[in-house]
Amino acid sequence: MKRIGRILFCLLPLLLTIILQNLVTVPICGIAAMAVLVKNRGTGIPFAEQVNELLSLISTPTFIILVSMSYAVVAMVLFGVWYRKKIAPSQERIAVRNAFNPWIVSALLVLSVGLQYVISYLMNFIGVLRPDWMQSYAELIDSAGIGTLSPLMLTYAIVIAPISEELIFRGVTLGYAKKVFPVAGAVCLQAVLFGIFHLNMIQGIYAAFLGLFIGYLHEAGGTVAIPMLFHAFFNSFGTLASEAMYYHMEQPFFFLLWLTVGVLLTYTGIFLFQHGIRVRGSKTADHSL
Known about the structure:
Blueprint: H1 2-10, H2 12-39, H3 47-58, H4 61-91, H5 102-129, H6 131-144, H7 151-177, H8 183-197, H9 201-221, H10 225-240, H11 242-245, H12 252-288
Helix pairs in contact: 1-7, 2-3, 2-4, 2-7, 4-7, 5-6, 5-9, 5-10, 5-12, 7-8, 7-10, 8-9, 9-10
């Protein structure tokens, strides 16, 4: 029973994130409703039209991103304190100031580009098998304004989301999972939960796949700061350079070319990362002498 309790406790961060999203969304929608009522007070506009105005407002990409940012900031604070107090003392094996070197940073850059290609092929393959999933995903992306390069969107995708999501999954969730499972099992569990967190099949599958790599980066790197930087790089390329990265991909030659490029970049990124960890370790050993 004690082991079952610990396993269920690994699910708590995901449950709290879902609850937190709703707790943040409700008051923001309430403020929007009050703003619409105040704006239309005394104008004689029918209540039904005011409701439609409110629904139009809360379905705009800007509003959705604002809600996402608000939730992510609250999550960043909550899980940051949780991680610092309960997980970091036993899990962080290296200080952030010593975590990076040029090899590691270069590796994260290369790996983020390689995985962009690999994951795009994974999504295309799933889309062929289940076009309905891909259609739902495309509609979600459009409604959420993810393709809109606004300052709010860039701030959320490149800064806030990487920090909050890494604290939740590679920080708190993985930290508790390692107390119950072997490292490989814990990495797999947090990857699955990371996929479930996205709440749609296409994003869920590729997020779980990506979560395996990020879990590896955390365990090999010894600090949650490394997954945070990788996540920021990955989101940056996906947000800013997605169209340029897949130029003429519909042609068979380029289709195979970019697949090959993605696999090679992913392998190169892992190789550089492992080399960077060895270089960092040797320097740390030299300083301790």
